[in-house]
């Protein structure tokens, strides 16, 4: 397969990936990293098409050479930036844009020299450097990375080196290296570019799908408004402590509280003000809790606090601190300052508890606090002692 056929295959492959992704994402919200990656692939497809006409006489060689590599460097830079974005580095533009401009200037300078070997060296080194940047982005967080990410990082780095070596050998050893002729090195480099197109393309899409699955799993157990576990997430956090309660040791406490008269906030000031109030209450709770404690939103304005290895009296003290803090702290809603109160029920997990019996008991305590006038704490009923034989 000659060089022009390989270039055309690279252009067609990138265009096919972009077209498939366009129809798949049509009408859907697109993540920022995916949008950046798609633009990078489009530029690369245009670059390889332009380079197909280089030296054909259809277009001026200067225009096709510099324009083709400028598009290529821009596309590779955007693709590298998309990988850095998936690695959590959102400020990649401050480094990648200067790198793209520098690569274009260096290649333009090499073109002015009018030496094919120098142009080949500049193009190969810049291309290899961009792919090494992709490999570095994939290797970020290596210790916690999934196996797919590690495999992509290693493979991309090896192929990027092969691409760069092609340019070095073209200048240093124009007749070949060892038993390898320059033509063989050229084919190896072209094959590496084709493999890089496939590996980084499908690899990015697989990593993006994996990210979406993780996000769905996270949202399934998280209240996105307040950034705390929802009912499902809180019950999942509670499960191991229910099992530990069957063993002797320091008990684990559970506090359930309800925001008093919350409906008036929504009625008087609107639902956005209600969201502000709930976020403020959650923040006040967090400031009174340990790192090991857990707050979750059960339903509506009912919340639960899981206090591991906490006896009942200590749990009552923590609940009182939270109640008092909420009572004396005005909350700015945008339209007014409001004062809120909460009613709380407190209990500890018992060895014979199920989640049904546990929440039935603490809910009864919460209802007792409400019936007593709200803005107070009620302790759950103590266990009934076993009858003496």
From TrEMBL:
The keyword Membrane applies. Residues 250-382 form the GGDEF domain. It is an enzyme of class 2 (transferase). GO terms for molecular function: diguanylate cyclase activity. This is diguanylate cyclase. It comes from the Bacteria. Its EC number is 2.7.7.65. It comes from Zemynaea arenosa. One of its GO terms (biological process) is negative regulation of bacterial-type flagellum-dependent cell motility. It catalyses: 2 GTP = 3',3'-c-di-GMP + 2 diphosphate. One of its GO terms (cellular component) is plasma membrane. Keywords: Membrane, Transmembrane, Transmembrane helix.
């Amino acid at each position: 397969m000659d060089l022009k056929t390989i270039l055309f295959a690279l252009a067609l492959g990138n265009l096919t990936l972009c077209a498939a992704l366009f129809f798949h994402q049509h009408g859907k919200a697109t993540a920022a990293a995916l949008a950046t990656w798609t633009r990078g692939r489009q530029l690369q497809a245009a670059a390889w098409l332009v380079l197909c006409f280089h030296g054909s006489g259809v277009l001026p060689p200067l225009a096709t050479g510099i324009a083709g590599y400028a598009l290529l460097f821009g596309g590779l830079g955007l693709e590298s930036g998309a990988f850095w974005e998936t690695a959590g580095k959102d400020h990649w533009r401050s480094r990648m844009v200067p790198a793209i401009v520098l690569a274009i200037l260096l290649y333009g300078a090499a073109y002015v020299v009018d030496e094919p070997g120098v142009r080949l060296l500049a193009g190969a080194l810049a291309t290899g450097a961009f792919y090494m940047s992709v490999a570095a982005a994939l290797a970020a967080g290596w210790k916690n990375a999934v196996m797919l990410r590690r495999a992509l990082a290693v493979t991309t780095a090896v192929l990027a080196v092969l691409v760069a070596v092609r340019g070095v050998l073209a200048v240093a050893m124009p007749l070949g290296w060892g038993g390898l002729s320059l033509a063989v090195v050229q084919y190896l480099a072209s094959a590496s570019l084709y493999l890089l197109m496939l590996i980084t393309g499908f690899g990015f899409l697989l990593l993006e799908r994996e990210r979406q699955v993780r996000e769905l799993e996270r949202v399934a157990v998280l209240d996105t408004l307040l950034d705390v576990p929802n009912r499902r997430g809180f019950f999942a956090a509670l499960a191991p402590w229910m099992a530990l309660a069957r063993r002797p040791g320091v008990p684990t406490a559970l506090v359930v509280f309800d925001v008093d008269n919350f409906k008036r906030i929504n009625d008087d000031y609107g639902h956005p003000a209600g969201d502000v109030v709930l976020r403020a209450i959650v923040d006040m709770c967090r400031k009174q809790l340990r790192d090991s404690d857990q707050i979750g939103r059960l339903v509506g304005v009912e919340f639960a606090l899981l206090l591991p290895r906490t006896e009942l009296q200590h749990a009552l003290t923590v609940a009182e601190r939270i109640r008092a803090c909420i009572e004396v702290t005005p909350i700015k809603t945008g339209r007014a300052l409001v004062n809120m109160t909460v009613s709380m029920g407190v209990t500890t997990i018992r060895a014979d508890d199920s989640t049904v019996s546990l929440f039935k008991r603490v809910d009864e305590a919460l209802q007792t606090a409400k019936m007593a006038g709200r803005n107070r704490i009620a302790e759950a009923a103590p266990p009934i002692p076993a009858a003496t034989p």
